Fold:
Amino acid sequence: MATKFSFKADYVVYANPDQVFEALTNPGIISSWGGGLSVVEEKIGGVFELFDGWVKGQVTAYVPGKELGFTWRPEEWNKNTKPSLVNIQLKKHDAGTAVIITHTDFPSQEEADKHGSGWIDYVMDPMNDYFVMHKEEKTSK
Structure:
């Protein structure tokens, strides 16, 4: 039986679940926190692309404000490598939203570890910065 390499993290984002879901699916907002072009079709089986097409996949779960799932294959992975799977659960939290990321089916533990830090450095931290900056802009007006 093949070993399944995975990454799981809980992260708090300072916005409500609907805002976090929108920040994960709206190309205009994604470009504000993540840079680059993205595509997230609002349906199961829809196209999923982030970071100017660096990662491509298909939407596997789409429940606004609650859950987003998709397959994930970075462009440098071997074409024979099966895509990994991402599931993001959003739950209300006193400070905003608890984001539970489960990313499974990596080809190696090294890839799982690399992506684990990538989720924090390139998605969660920049998204939180986006919401903090957005909130400060609204309060300073």
User: Anything to note?
Assistant: Residues 109-140 form the longest helix (32 residues). Helices lie at 17-25, 27-34, 109-140. DSSP finds three helices and seven strands in the chain. The chain has a mean pLDDT of 92.
